[in-house]
């Protein structure tokens, strides 16, 4: 993130202020804008950078209100993750709706139509409930991990992941994630994640890797 507290309970933490929100949104958008899944959905748009930044800001703000955003100080790292017991599907849908509000306000009708159509294509290989074929009960969903590029090789990723891994091990909660970037697969495997499923779309030339630990 180090002020880093993983919250798998209803403990309340102080939310990010507006300046911090902007800083972490900038980190998230700058690190993930080149993600294959993001490029497929908005890469062809002229205002892709702006729209994705708004999307990141909305996601961080909405999830922060649920106590599921954890950070490294000075906008050096960000993790969004949540327990399925604390953020069940119905509540998650409401959070995602809140997260998209700013984007919906700013994007044009043509931009929204493009994003929605591309998202439908991506969703053909991205089943968000895929883990239910393997796990029953509570899971921890690792949703977003982003660290400043200057921290590569410094152990920052370990600092982000290990508190999550440790607490989930103690509570015997499996951790699941999905990534569209094949470069991420060996990185997560290094931390004990296993590749459970992989899917590929020839139409949009995109992979989806489903991984789990525990």
Brief sketch in words of this structure:
The protein is 44% helix and 19% strand. The chain is α+β, with helices and mostly antiparallel strands and 214 residues long.
Describe this structure in words.
The model is unreliable at about 1-10 (pLDDT under 50). A 6-stranded mixed sheet has the order 1-2-3-4-6-5. Helices cover about 45% and strands about 20% of the residues. α1 (about 20-30) packs across α3 (about 50-65), α2 packs across α6 (about 110-125) and α3 (about 50-65) packs across α4 (about 90-100). By secondary structure, the chain is of the alpha+beta class. It has a single domain (about 20-214), classed as Gcn5-related N-acetyltransferase (GNAT) (Aminopeptidase, 3-Layer(aba) Sandwich), CATH 3.40.630.30.
Radius of gyration: 17 Å
CATH class categorisation: Alpha Beta
Largest sheet: 6 strands, mixed
Query: How many domain modules?
Result: 1
The beta-strand count equals 6
Name of the CATH superfamily: Gcn5-related N-acetyltransferase (GNAT)
Uncertain segments are 1-12
Query: Overall 3D geometry?
Result: globular
Instruction: Enumerate how many helices there are, as a single number.
Output: 8
Main structural class: alpha+beta
Q: In which range does the helix fraction lie?
A: 40-55%
**Level-2 CATH architecture:** 3-Layer(aba) Sandwich
**What is the CATH topology assignment?**
Aminopeptidase
Which strands sit side by side, in order, in the main sheet?
A: 1-2-3-4-6-5
Task: Report the end-to-end length measured between terminal Cα atoms.
Answer: 22 Å
**Helices and strands, in N-to-C order?**
HHHEEHHHEHEHEE
Mean pLDDT: 91
């Amino acid at each position: 993130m180090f002020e880093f507290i993983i919250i798998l309970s209803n403990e309340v933490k102080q939310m990010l202020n507006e300046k911090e929100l902007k800083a972490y949104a900038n980190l998230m958008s700058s690190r993930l804008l080149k993600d294959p899944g993001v490029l497929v959905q908005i890469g062809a748009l002229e205002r892709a950078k702006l729209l994705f930044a708004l999307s990141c800001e909305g996601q961080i703000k909405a999830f922060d209100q649920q106590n599921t955003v954890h950070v490294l100080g000075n906008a050096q790292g960000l993790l969004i993750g949540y327990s399925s017991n604390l953020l069940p599907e119905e509540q998650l849908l409401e959070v995602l709706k809140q997260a998209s509000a700013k984007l919906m306000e700013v994007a044009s009708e043509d931009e929204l139509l493009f994003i929605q159509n591309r998202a439908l294509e991506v969703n053909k290989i991205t089943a968000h409930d895929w883990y239910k074929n393997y796990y029953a009960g509570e899971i921890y969903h690792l949703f977003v991990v982003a660290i400043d590029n200057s921290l590569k090789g410094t152990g920052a990723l370990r600092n982000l992941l290990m508190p999550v891994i440790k607490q989930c091990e103690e509570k015997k909660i499996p951790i699941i994630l999905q990534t569209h970037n094949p470069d991420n697969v060996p990185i997560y495997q290094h931390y004990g994640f296993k590749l459970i499923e992989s899917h590929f779309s020839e139409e949009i030339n995109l992979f989806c890797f489903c991984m789990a630990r525990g």
